[in-house]
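User: Quick one: structure for sequence A, then sequence B.

Assistant: Sequence A:
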Amino acid sequence: MNILIVGLGSIARKHILAIRRNGSHRISALRSGPNPRHKEDGVEDIFSIEEAGDKDLDFAIISNPTSEHAAAIEKLLPLRIPLFIEKPVVADVRSGQALAKKISDAGILTYVGCNLRFLGCLRFLKEYLERHPDRRINEANVYCGSDLRTWRPGTDYRQGYSARPELGGGVNIDLIHDVDYTLWMFGQPEYTRSVCRSSSSLGIEAFDYANFCLVYPGFCASVILNYYRPEYRRSMEIVFDDSVMTIDVAGNTVKDNAGNVLFSSDERIPDTYFAQMNHFIKLVETGTTRCSNDFAAGLSTLRICTNEGSR
């Protein structure tokens, strides 16, 4: 396959590794200028959409800064090729709404990169809930906390896109994965309430704390995200009538309240990029134009994360 990548940062390199594990594919990167600071071995640099159009592309990956997603999608739409869009789908709902109709009219496949859907412990829980639809859930609690200062060693965390709202940063959309897999697990809520703040010792402008309450007919799901927890923790807890199920997302395990291990795997979150890319490539190969996590679904998730889904 001929694949174009827009944006060649750290997340793009993860996608490149996943593509190479999938098979032998030709990869080009659309660069912003003739002397890029970073080059990737085996990836051809190109410098215009016109040049990309001559490549007989099979699909494109949009992995540039979130604030530039909408412009990249606009430029690629005339090529009418499938688009793999790194999360979050765009920086704001308004620009996404304008694009949604254009994407629909183009009739192309879009997929929003949410690789946690391919993690074993979460797939186990999803399948468990589907097999036991009558199990009463009283409460669900999702948590993701980590220290932004340790994310990119050797850089000033205050200058990275995660800390800068004008680039699409902020824990509410940077950690959109955890809201996404909650919606994947339980569906769309009846309504939401949220609190987003930037008041910790990090001293950044973007939100460093977010608390979402997703209201379902029989229970509420709480999603808490932060940038300042010294020790990384990512987890989900389901409180049933008669038991509690704890999902260690970072450790890829599921346990009940008696300590019994219901699921365990040595696979870790970085391993899910291959499964995700393999899934997307199969969608492209079959010629489908629809999937469960397309642009419209990603925009719906973004509405909640930016407080535009609350009422």
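Sequence B:
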Amino acid sequence: MNKKLFVIGAVFLLSLTLLVGCGGQDKQAGTIDYPTKPIKYVIPFEPGGQSDLEARRQQRPLEQILGTSIVIENKAGGGGAVGWAELVNKKPDGYYMTGINIPHIILQPLARENAGYQTDQIITVALFQATPIGLAVHPDSPYNTLDEFIEAGKKNPGKITVSGSGTLSGHDIALMQLEDITGAKYQYIPAQGAAPSIQSFLGKHVDAILANSNDLVQHQDKMKILAIGSGETFEPLPEVKTFKELGIDMIASIDRGVAVPPNTDPQIIETLEKAFLEIANDQDIQAQMLKEGFMPLAMGSEESKQYINEMKKEYSVILEKVKK
């Protein structure tokens, strides 16, 4: 009898041990307790720029959704490269994320050996805003249409000056695309940001400008906008034709989003993705963006990855042609 009781007790203890063990495995394989502390949201540009303003618009909603503090920090340098180089070397624990800009994160590693990062190291969580790039000339410019501007660029290659925001920026690649498609040639004048570029144009130091949609909206009475790089009619400027509508097969835009370090747990990415997409799909926030001259986006992690890969292929071809 005692032996029987001993056997029963041993089986009970073994069963209990297995249950506890299985419970531990379930906990380990289950959902991660995240977040449990403040998250740092780095913007790799100066305060006051659109990337910074957008992060601060997202800050309070993110805190409400995630239930933790969001600490915004600006870390400018190298057209964003300093911040992205730091991002890819950070601990992938979900408490460090950085704003990203396309095409910057694609063009810099393609054109520079020392960019400090590779595009595929940047794990995109979401893309939430697009800034279509438009081509504009002065009100008294002899060019009244995109066709006239292109013909002038063919007849007088390199004579027409075009301002844009920096080298290897969305504006720079947009002009490369236009030249590649049409055969026209212009002289690109890079500025140290969108604001200096607009100032240069308004001061008539250049003949034309490739400008961000919000600047086009703000200064539309001081320029003739010949075309815009959105995929379809841009709601804040409904009278302006897209490049595609005018026969030029190109989309020109600066897209903004947020990314985390490589090897970040998929559950963490999913948690952040849901939070950012909830904000991106908020109708009030979308209305604010449109009023300011931006195009709302709501692209998740996988969709963003596919989009970036497609753009990388396209830009690689253009840059190779420019090098020849």
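Confidence is low (pLDDT under 50) at residues 1-29. The CA atoms of residues 125 and 301 lie 5 Å apart.

User: Thanks, that's what I needed.
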